[in-house]
Amino acid sequence: MLRNIKSLKFKNKDLFRRVYTVASELLDNVYRHSKPDSYCSSFALYVSQENYRVLTINPVAKVKSNVINDVQLINSLPEDSLKNHFMNKINSSEINERGTIGLGFDLIRLKSKGLLLLSSMQKGEDEFLIVDVKVKF
């Protein structure tokens, strides 16, 4: 999938790097946090005249309230405060059992220069996490 992004025409290298970083972080999120033994994750990249839009949908055991709270926090922060929040997490966080320190959404928000739209959907016994990010030109 990431190879396909490289084949798109971008206005400049900075925009390519930002879209690539957002897409790779979202794919990593799908890989690390999808419900075990599930096979129905989705990834889409849309292009419009104003932005690139990256969308992922993946099954999760349960959408945790701390994830929703964290996204609400980082969406509420202006860029300078978000950068400080990001650096504080790097300096004070410990690596969790999945090998991360929880910086994915922070990095996505910084690189996209826009808000993260996060929602969930219930289908039968399965719950899905939907992440929608617009990367501004």
SSE arrangement:
Blueprint lengths: L1 H5 L6 H21 L8 E6 L3 E10 L4 H12 L2 H14 L11 H9 L3 E8 L2 E11 L1
Antiparallel strand pairs: 1-2, 2-4, 3-4
Helix pairs in contact: 2-5
How does this model look, in words?
The protein has about 140 residues and is α+β, with helices and mostly antiparallel strands. The chain has helices at about 1-5, 15-35, 65-75, 80-90, 105-110, and strands at about 40-45, 50-60, 115-125, 125-135. A 4-stranded antiparallel β-sheet has the order 1-2-4-3. Helix 2 (about 15-35) runs antiparallel to helix 5.
Q: In sequence order, what are the helices and strands, one letter per element?
A: HHEEHHHEE
Rg from Cα: 15 Å
Q: Describe the largest sheet.
A: 4 strands, antiparallel
The general outline is globular
Output the structural class.
Answer: alpha+beta
Number of strands: 4
How much helix, percentage-wise, in residues? Answer: 40-55%
Distance between the termini: 21 Å
Question: What order do the strands of the largest sheet run in, or round the barrel if closed?
Answer: 1-2-4-3
Quote the beta fraction: 25-35%
Number of helices: 5
The average pLDDT is 88
Q: Low-confidence spans: pLDDT under 50, at least 5 residues?
A: none
